[in-house]
Amino acid sequence: MKTGIIIAVIVIAVVLVCFFAIYNSFIKLNNSVEEAFATMDVYLKKRWDLIPNLVSTVKGYAKHEAETLLNVIEARNMNYSSMSAEDKLDANAQLSKGLAGISVVAEQYPDLKANQNFIHLSNELSQAELDIANARKYYNAVVKKYNDKVAMFPSNLVAAMFHFTKKQMFVVEEAVQRENVKVEF
User: Fold this and answer.
1) Looking at the predicted structure, is the pLDDT value of residue 50 above 60?
2) Which of 140, 170, 142 is nearest to 26 (CA)?
3) Coil vs helix vs strand at 104
4) Which of 4, 21, 63, 151 shows its CA 20 to 30 Å from the CA of 87?
5) Strand partners, 104
6) How far is CA 126 from CA 122, 158, 180, in A?
7) List of residues 6+ apart from 142 with CB closer than 8 A
8) What is the per-residue pLDDT across 96-123, written as a single tens digit (0 to 9) for each?
């Protein structure tokens, strides 16, 4: 009789330890899912705020450089030899003024500052998309682990008791996933 009570107490203790371990693992996984979503949300918000601001900045600078470049090209393309001395001075002043707004002008292929801005924009867009993809992979991995625990025995019993339900994976709609991100200038 005494041995039976000791065995029953040990079995109950083991069941309670397992129960609390499973419950605590659900709490830990749920917190991991929330943390993973919050991280992904930060990157999504960054992209939401960053892209329009970068595009606007690059557009403004590109417009400025386009106008400056046109002025320089126009001044440079005048037939210098047929100009009067006064026209040459005016054209030279106009050319100098235009060149002040440009970093470097190559003969046929100008290396404009806007080019650097376009490269920077492209790098920022690529990095934002990479960050989001990595955060999405992490989030989905944590959600998969959590959902497995919700569905598998015996943890599914604890999940049902405490209303731990499956979480939704972050899935990009197929139509959206196949479209390029539109960046217009």
Assistant:
1) yes
2) 142
3) strand
4) 63
5) 111
6) 6, 43, 12
7) 29, 32, 33, 36
8) 455 444 434 333 345 555 567 667 777 8
